[in-house]
Each structure stands twice: as C-alpha cells, then as structure tokens.
Amino acid sequence: MNKSKQIFSVLLAATFLSPLAPVTSFAREKITQVSLSFSMDPDSWENLNVDCEDESYFVRTVNLFPDGSATSSFPYAVIVLDAEDDYYFTSIKPKYFELEGEGAVFQEAARSNSNSTMTLSVRLKNLGEGELEEPTSLVWTDTGIATWDEVLGAGNYSVRIRRDGEAVSSSSSPTTKVTVYNLSTKITKPGNYTFQVKANGLYKKTKSSDWVTSPILAVDEAKLAYIREHASQDTGIQGQWHSDSAGTWYQYTTGEIPTNDWREIEDNWYYFDGSGYMVKNQWVDRYYVGNDGKMLKETTTPDGHYVDENGAWAPK
Predict the structure, then answer these.
(1) CA diameter of the chain
(2) What digits encode the pLDDT tens for the residues 93-122?
(3) Hey, how many other C-beta atoms are within 10 angstroms of the C-beta on 174?
C-alpha cells in the first residue's frame, strides 16, 4: 500500500491470515536467534529488501513506512516472519534479533500462531536526504487537465494554477499522489493559463523540488466553452467510478485503472484486484475492506477483530 498508514505503536499478529491448528511447542525445534539484513533497492526509493539466510524461517511480508510515525521522523518497517513447520520462535527481546544494514534498530516484536509467526518493527536510518529532481514534461490536455512525468522519490506533488501570471486561488495548493490533476473547473474566464508543480519527498528529510511552470494554455471564448462542456463537475477530481455486472472499478483521467494496489480516493482507502475491480468484505493483508469497499478504521470487523485508527488489525 503506495499509502502511509502508520502502525508503529501496535505490532500486528497475523492469526486471521493463517488458520493453522495449534502445534505443541515441544514437538518443534527452537529458533535461537533471528538474523536479518536490510538493503534499499538502488533504483527505487520505496523498495526495502529484507533477507535471511536461516532455513528455519522466512520473510513473508515487508511494509516500509518512509515518512515515519506520529512521534518520530525516522522511517520504519514492519516485517512478518514465518517459521518452517518444524520450528518456532522463542523470544521477543531485543537481543534475540540481529539486524544489519540501513541503520536498522529493533523497536518491538510480537508472536502469534503458536509462536510460528513473528511480527517486528524496525527503525531505519534517515533515508532520502537531499533534494528531489524537478518534475518534467508538464503538459496540458485540451480539456484543462495537468499532467507531468513521475519523479523518483516523490511521495506526492503540489499543484497550483495561474491566469495571466496571477494565482487563480488563494487557498493552499492541493496535492496528488498521481502525475495528473484536473484543473478544468479553475478555468473560468479567457486568459493565458499555466500550472505549476513541485515534487514532495517520500521521506520527511527529503527536500521538495522547486516549482516548475508548464507551457501556456491559451483560452479564448471558444476554448472556454469547450472546456466547460468537457470539464469534470468536481474540482480536483482524479477520476471516476464505474460499475458493471462483475463489480466496480475506478479510472483516472489519464485512463489508468489501478490493479493489485491500494488507492486513496476522496479520503478513503480502497483495494483493487488484478482485474481492477474494487475488493469488498474481506481482509487484504492486515486491513479489512467493508461492503462499500472502504477500509475500516477504529472498529470491530465482521469476524471479530479490532482495527485501529490506521485500519491495521490491532489486538487489544
């Protein structure tokens, strides 16, 4: 999830994901230490690699939270490990974990599934120092939609619009996580329009890029009438919902339909399957989506698990 759900304060067991029958611990061998090595993908600011050489357990999932938590600006990761069938984890104390790479420091851990699952939180060094590159290839569509190329390391983009060199709105600049923004309803009278974009860092220590200005979109009365006819009715909307007999999907103004991914739409999180359809009434990793597809928060799921304010399953 390219989403920053912060679950640092509560570690997540995964019992509901692995309906394993209880196994008596004396029938299995002890895992005497957990050793993990961490490395960032040099071609991406988002991919954290976690490796282990021990054959008694393996890494199931890695979730990186690059912008830190409410109490710390350091990025951190939550890692879920599974023991092989004949093994079990024996401790959650700091000395039980040997961590190397990316400044990894143990924070806390929890066990579940008769000690066959380990979930741990690891603080990382302050990644992403420096300044982002400026956005490039700024282009207007003929209906007043702004587009630009992706910037490596950007968590989101700020967008603003100008007419004849003056700001159209005095409100704060909106942000978007995709490289498109609908400005059509801000084009209300003839004039020469430009939009400006800056990239904001995925990490808190990353400095935003400078503002970059687009080419001019010249709007006369005829062009204004065309834009009004084709403009979205909602300022800043990134796309539209669609449905058919198989389900519901979301399509951005660029034509993109998200698949196998979480997306935040109008302040709610949704998950879309491999065919692009919105998932509902089920668990997706450690998060539950309801009948309307929205991720549940601060409530009890239909199967009796509590999810916290970030939507993560959080045992009481």
Answers:
(1) 81
(2) 999 999 999 999 999 999 988 999 999 999
(3) 16
